[in-house]
């Protein structure tokens, strides 16, 4: 799945398949400017930062179990969001510090370090990487990903795929080759 935020005409948090199909709103009320998003892959939760409402909130992948982690002045200048173990990590763009916030109750806020001009944060840790299983976009005997001549996108599950073409090309009637 692909998770993303949108604060165009109607602010929302959405999800879709990797090929863009099955687009679903998971948060579409009491939300104004969701700018950062982080996923808890193990427990299947979506955290987001709303810079207009000065809040960090969470829902499950279906948009249920919504609650606010932290709200108010402490959230005012935050950008970027990452989750690891019991904490959320974010960047305070006002003083360029990296903050750690307890993700269960919004307490235990600590400034960990300062970075020049940081706007985003990512955490890479071996335990958070999902195991790779065989999937529909693996290289075929002819060296093409999923049998697609240009781009292979996973679809509704790891066994299904959709082929797409680069700009200027159109997908052939076989659903795999680009012309």
TrEMBL record:
Coiled-coil regions listed: none
Tell me the superkingdom of the source. Answer: Eukaryota
A GO molecular function term, named singly, is: Wnt receptor activity
Q: Where are the LDL-receptor class B repeats?
A: 1-43, 44-87
Q: Which GO terms describe its biological process?
A: canonical Wnt signaling pathway
The identity of this protein, by name, is LRP1B protein
Taxonomic classification, please?
Answer: Eukaryota, Metazoa, Chordata, Craniata, Vertebrata
Instruction: Quote the SUPFAM superfamilies the UniProt record gives.
Output: YWTD domain (SSF63825)
Pfam assignment, any one = FXa_inhibition
One Gene Ontology cellular component annotation held by this UniProt entry: plasma membrane
């Amino acid at each position: 799945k692909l998770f993303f935020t949108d604060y165009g005409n109607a602010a929302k948090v959405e999800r879709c398949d990797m090929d863009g199909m099955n687009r679903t709103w998971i948060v579409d009320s009491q939300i104004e400017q969701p700018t950062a998003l982080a996923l808890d892959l193990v427990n299947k939760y979506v955290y987001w930062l709303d810079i207009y409402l000065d809040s960090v909130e969470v829902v499950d992948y279906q948009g249920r179990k919504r609650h606010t982690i932290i709200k108010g002045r402490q959230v005012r200048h935050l950008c970027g969001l990452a989750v690891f173990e019991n904490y959320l990590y974010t960047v305070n763009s006002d003083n360029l510090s990296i903050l750690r916030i307890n993700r269960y109750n919004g307490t235990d806020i600590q400034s960990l370090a300062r970075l020049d001009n940081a706007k985003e944060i990512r955490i890479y840790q071996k335990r958070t990487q999902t195991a790779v299983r065989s999937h529909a976009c693996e290289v075929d005997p002819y060296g093409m990903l999923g049998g697609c001549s240009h781009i292979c996108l996973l679809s509704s599950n790891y066994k299904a795929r959709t082929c797409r073409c680069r700009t200027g090309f159109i997908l052939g009637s076989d659903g795999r080759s680009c012309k």
